[in-house]
Amino acid sequence: MAGNMQLVLAAKYIGAGIALIGLLGAGIGIAIVFAALINGVSRNPSLKKDLFGYCVLGMALSEALGLFCLMISFILLFAV
């Protein structure tokens, strides 16, 4: 019985670690969005305000997905 609980606990930690891989994707996504902003502003500085609005939207969407992954990891660790 105790061995079974240790197996469940190990699976819980492994699942939480796998769920955190999404944070890596969110970080890469934010970096790509800001790199595209820098590239776009350097090519056409007059579009700075429009591009910055799109940049903030892209960053928010990318970070939201990262926060969902973090939430799933916390649910696996502390709620189950």
Account of the 3D structure:
- The structure is a single chain.
- The chain is mostly helical and 80 residues long.
- It has helices at residues 2-19, 21-43, 48-78.
- It is rod-shaped, with a radius of gyration of 19 Å.
**Can you count the beta strands?**
0
Which secondary-structure class do the elements indicate? Answer: mainly alpha
Largest sheet: none
Radius of gyration: 19 Å
Termini separation:
18 Å
What is the general shape?
A: rod-shaped
| Beta-strand content | under 5%
Mean pLDDT: 91
Order of helices and strands: HHH
Summarize the structure.
With 80 residues, the chain is mainly α. Helices cover 90% and strands 0% of the residues. The protein contains 3 helices and no strands.
Main attributes of the structure:
about 0% strand, 3 helices
What secondary-structure arrangement, pairings included, does this model have?
Layout: H1 2-19, H2 21-43, H3 48-78
GO molecular function: lipid binding; proton transmembrane transporter activity
Keywords: CF(0), Hydrogen ion transport, Ion transport, Lipid-binding, Membrane, Mitochondrion, Transmembrane, Transmembrane helix, Transport
GO cellular component, one term: proton-transporting ATP synthase complex
